[in-house]
Amino acid sequence: MWNRLPKIIRCATIVALASLRCLFASVAWSAESDGFGKLVSPAIQQHCAKCHGAEEEIEGDVNLLELRSDNLTANVELLRKFIDVLDLEEMPPEDEPPLAPKLRADLVIELRTLLHSTVSKQKTFSHAPIRRMNRFQYNNAVTDLFDLRCVVFTLPERMMREHNGYFKPETGKMAEVVTVGSRPLGKSQLIESRLDGVAAFPQDLRAEHGFDNRGDHLSLSPLLMEAFLKLGQSITQSPDFNSANVGVWDAFFATPEEQSDLRSTVRRRLEPFLTQAFRRPINTDQLDRYVRFVAHQLDTGIAFPDAMKAVAAATISSPTFIYLYDKSGDSENAESIDDYELASRLSFFLWGSIPDHTLLALAAAGELKKPAILAAQLDRMLKDHKLKRFCDSFPSQWLQLERIISSVPNPEKYPGFYYAKYRDSMHMMLEPLLLFETVLIENQPITQLIDSDFTYRSALLEDAYQELRTASATDRKNDGTVTTLKFSRVPVTDRRNGGVITNAAVMTMTSGPDRTQPITRGAWLATVIFNNPPDPPPADVPPLDEKPPEGQEHLTLRERLSLHRERSDCKGCHEQIDPLGFALENYDAIGVWRDHYENGREVDMAGTLFRKHHFGDVVEFKEAILAEKDRFTRALAGHLLSYGLARELAASDQIALDQIAEAAAADEYRFQTLLKQVILSKPFQSKTNPKTAPVK
User: Fold this and answer.
1) Domains of the chain by residue range
2) Residue 150 backbone phi and psi in degrees, to 5
3) How far apart (Å, rounded) are the C-alpha atoms in residues 61 and 432?
4) DSSP code of 529?
């Protein structure tokens, strides 16, 4: 019986039981030994209070003396941050006496036990505020609602465009050769089948260390509301909005043969249309208003298709369509979302759009949340071509690839970066995106994102890598045209290649015009790979000059940057990010391998990850990250969960992240398992949205 259950359910059950056992055992141990009073408090007094409890000056505005066993609920975020800096071995600073390994391990265990116990008592999650669809979601939602055979408007934020239908998730296999396009190729990539006369509203900005779907960034001003009204009308009034391009034309817009009772026909057509548009059944009063609107149009002599276009325009301009939100609950504590809310969370997470008829039908029947049915729907959604929208949105934002658009390597110093009037960046950015898609479609371990045994390269990109060209590239010729590019899957035997952290795109976008920027690279790695973004630098710290000043030409970049570490307010962050950034120092400002600087000095990239994994070359650095693959798994789970919930994560989400990572590890770190566990997690399937905000 157990073996016949879907793997996703078995994994979730195992993790849930294991977590409960650990929680009960930990709480019991803590209660018996008074871990906070006997372990945590003395450690804070001895090792932390000097900087984070002194009356004169508290570094980083962190006062650990505020933590007491009787006030953890009020300081749960401080407790979480304390765990992070201990677990990542960021504290104490290098110039302070270190913690004994056993003491550090015991502190992390005890503090996590306290965090889990405190969060469990709170029984709430952060509330995702009401938000509008972003531009990407709106385009997809309108396309799906009308079953358009073209796009609504062109989206420049889609960095990679599919040209030969290579994306076939139902096969579980990525094509060996793909034909793609890249946004920096220019206007030629913006020429696609779309609705004439429809102008897109401005692109939505990505949140710092987040995504462009965040609720706290997607407000709707009166000016933008007016723009949506005009946008809805321009869509349905476009000359291309006709039976040739609109898949629902016959079922919704076409004049019915039977003219005797048009009001009933309108009602029959509107009810399923509005249900899909608003993602839940429409009530009778709402439906009556829309029916009366169409009836009034018909009574004034407007043709039936035009009357239905008018109501369709009103629908896609309605706040009920544009806004994403959870229904108010009856409790101030977390509550389970209903089936319709789950359908919307699923579809906007994986498809960037409204739920399809299958999801809504299961929600209407109250079936969607049943484990076996939900598991089947997740498999279906992961095999649908609309999964391409997840790949068009999440990885480019997670990897922050938009930064390469503004990268301008010095053409005199790096002439090979520029190809005719186009740049290598148009090829560079596609390599990590194709790797991401392959790992997802083929359900490979997410460790491939760190150290892959394959990659995708165009002939031009192979040439750009110079020494790091793959062996299979020997006989390849430049292929593709100005508008399309052919990328081939090639094996990686030289581990200086492969993964998302050592590709040319990341190396270029984290460099300046004339040199690498190890601090920028380190901050990128800390943020993207470990989901631990450093604090911004003090405002009065001047940036390091691109070129060494007179008298410093003989120094290495590490030696020049060491001056920044002399400031006490800079030291802590540099200890965190410098080893990460210098680990990639063998890659120059456009990702070409080098062993020496221009002044002849040897590149020194050696360092230690989390103060325990020493590395002497980039391969050893990758191995150090893989030694911490559970930490990377948890970090990626955090990025995915934040993207799925459209909000910043909080301390209350930490138990779920532990469970998600454990379940993924139990299934060999497979990507689809990680995605499914994010969806099965309690934060994803819960809401904290009381009708009345609690009085504080």
Assistant:
1) 35-122, 131-154+192-324, 156-191+386-515, 517-583+595-627
2) -150, 175
3) 38
4) T
The first and second tokens of residue 613, run together, are 């994994």
Q: How far is CA 572 from CA 89, 323, 531, in A?
A: 11, 42, 17
Distance CA(665)–CA(575), nearest Å, equals 29
Contact indicator for 389, 140 with CB cutoff of 8 Å = yes
Q: Which two tokens stand for residue 62?
A: 């962190």
Distance in angstroms (rounded) separating the CA atoms of residues 320 and 323: 6
Q: At what angle do helices 304-317 and 262-278 cross, to 10 degrees?
A: 30
Per residue in 143-197, pLDDT (tens digit) is 999 999 999 988 888 888 888 889 999 999 999 999 998 764 444 445 678 899 9
Q: Which amino acid is at 529?
A: I
Neighbour-count burial of 586, counting CB atoms closer than 10 A to its CB (0-12 exposed, 13-18 middle, 19+ buried): buried
Size of the chain, expressed as the number of residues it contains: 696
Neighbours of 382 (CB within 10 A): 20
613's enclosing H/E stretch is strand 613-615
Encode pLDDT of 34-87 as tens digits: 777 788 878 777 787 777 776 656 666 677 777 777 777 777 788 888 888 888
CA 238, 244, 245, 249 dihedral sign is positive
Count of C-beta atoms within a 10 Å radius of residue 296: 12
The model's pTM is: 0.88
Q: What is the CA radius of gyration of the chain?
A: 27
pLDDT, one tens digit per residue, over 602-619 is 999 999 998 889 999 999
Collapsing DSSP to helix, strand or coil, 151 comes out as strand
Burial class (CB within 10 angstroms; exposed 0-12, middle 13-18, buried 19+) of 549: exposed
Q: What is the dihedral of CA 81, 83, 86, 89, to 10 degrees?
A: -70
Angle at 221 between CA 217 and CA 222, to 5 degrees: 170
Query: Tokens 């385009």, residue?
Result: 139
Q: List the one residue out of 541, 464, 462, 446 whose CA is nearest residue 508.
A: 464
